[in-house]
């Protein structure tokens, strides 16, 4: 049975990617990768549980300083692996003091707090938590020799704090796209689709530069889509192309313009302007779910689409492919 979802992974809602060479200009140009541009489903399981909400903005957790987006990793020294386990420990506490270990952004904290009884006579800390997330993204490239892949071009982060969510595990899943919400100024669009129930591979790493994993096999039709890797020095202002899957027609190539190239930074290295009327007509530009779409310039794989500009959906950011490789290795 298909489970309908939306491609709403934060900022565009895809592994330890090991390289046998260091990433420099000459080494990068020798490497050949498959430029994917195919949509996939992300099933992401967190390390610990993420605070998704604080009802009423009050309660023991809020009073102790915990906030939405914080990640609870241990209670009384016991590792927390699921929302159900978290709830069982709190309910079975009998109101005794609990010691929580949690992360807020990049900082770790320990706090002591007392559960309280709710209207149903059950002990609570005053938080809603979640241990998983799902969404649609785009695979950027696949190493045909190792089957390792990278997608999204940005990490999966908490919407409130912007901090990377620790990955405990996850799978890449096949999706069937059913439509798109067209992007408008102030209202980013998104791809719509459903999980097909077929596992494509596993996820192994969530980083600032993307979601990493290993595929079981190369998706049909991509085996010959091989391109040499372009270095930062190869990236020029001007015409380029992206591969993207935005509808039932499947993967297609669309024209873009690259500008404002910045050598510094991890994930927003240049501006991407969608100029292809076909893509503008389908999506309005860049929508959530297209993040990770590979960028080709002068016959080389030079980067990926990462974020959309909220006030102009025809514009967005791109990341150097070298940064995605370096973070992997």
Short description:
With 329 residues, the chain is mainly beta.
Describe the structure.
The structure is a single chain. With 329 residues, this protein is mainly beta. The chain folds into two domains: 242 residues, Beta Barrel (Thrombin, subunit H), CATH 2.40.10.120; 72 residues, Pdz3 Domain, CATH 2.30.42. The chain has five helices and 20 strands. The strands form three sheets. It has a six-stranded antiparallel barrel. Strands 15-16-17-20-19-18 form a six-stranded antiparallel beta barrel. A two-stranded antiparallel sheet has the order 7-8. The relative contact order is 0.22.
CATH classification, class level of the largest domain: Mainly Beta
The count of helical stretches stands at 5
Major β-sheet profile: 6 strands, antiparallel, barrel
Shape: elongated
How much of the sequence is in beta strands? over 45%
Count of the domains: 2
Q: Tell me roughly what share of residues is in helical segments.
A: 10-25%
Radius of gyration, in Å, reads 21 Å
Task: Give the second-level CATH assignment, the architecture of the largest domain.
Answer: Beta Barrel
**Main sheet strand line-up:** 2-9-10-13-12-11
Structural class: mainly beta
- CATH fold-level assignment of the largest domain: Thrombin, subunit H
Please trace the helix and strand order, writing H or E for each element.
Answer: EHEHEEHEEEEEEEEEEEEEHEEEH
Spatial separation of the terminal alpha carbons: 38 Å
């Amino acid at each position: 049975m298909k489970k309908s979802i939306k491609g709403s992974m934060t900022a565009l809602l895809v592994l330890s990617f090991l390289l046998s060479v260091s990433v420099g200009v000459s080494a990068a140009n020798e490497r050949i990768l498959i430029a994917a541009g195919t949509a996939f489903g992300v099933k992401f399981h967190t390390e610990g549980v993420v605070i998704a909400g604080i009802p009423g903005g009050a309660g023991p957790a809020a009073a102790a300083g915990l906030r939405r987006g914080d990640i609870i990793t241990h209670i009384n020294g016991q590792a927390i692996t699921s929302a159900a386990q978290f709830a069982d420990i709190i309910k079975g506490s009998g109101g005794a003091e609990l010691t929580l270990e949690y992360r807020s952004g990049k900082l770790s904290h320990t706090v002591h707090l007392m559960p309280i009884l709710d209207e149903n006579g059950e002990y609570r800390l005053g938080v809603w938590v979640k241990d998983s997330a799902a969404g649609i993204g785009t695979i950027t490239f696949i190493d045909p020799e190792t089957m390792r892949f990278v997608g999204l071009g940005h990490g999966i982060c908490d919407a409130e704090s912007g901090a990377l969510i620790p990955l405990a595990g996850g799978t890449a899943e096949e999706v069937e796209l059913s439509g798109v919400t067209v992007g408008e100024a102030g209202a980013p669009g998104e791809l719509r689709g459903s999980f097909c129930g077929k596992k494509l591979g596993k996820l192994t790493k969530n980083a600032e530069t993307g979601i990493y994993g290993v595929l079981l096999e190369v998706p049909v039709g991509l085996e010959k889509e091989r391109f040499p890797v372009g270095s930062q020095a190869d990236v020029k202002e001007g015409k380029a192309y992206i591969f993207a899957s935005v509808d039932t027609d499947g993967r297609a190539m669309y024209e873009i313009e690259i500008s404002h190239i910045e050598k510094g930074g991890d994930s927003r290295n240049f501006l991407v302007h969608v100029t292809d009327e076909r893509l503008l007509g389908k999506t309005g530009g860049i929508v959530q779910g297209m993040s990770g779409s590979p960028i080709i310039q002068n016959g080389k794989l030079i980067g990926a689409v990462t974020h959309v500009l909220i006030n102009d959906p025809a514009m967005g950011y791109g990341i150097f492919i070298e940064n995605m490789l370096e973070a992997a290795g």
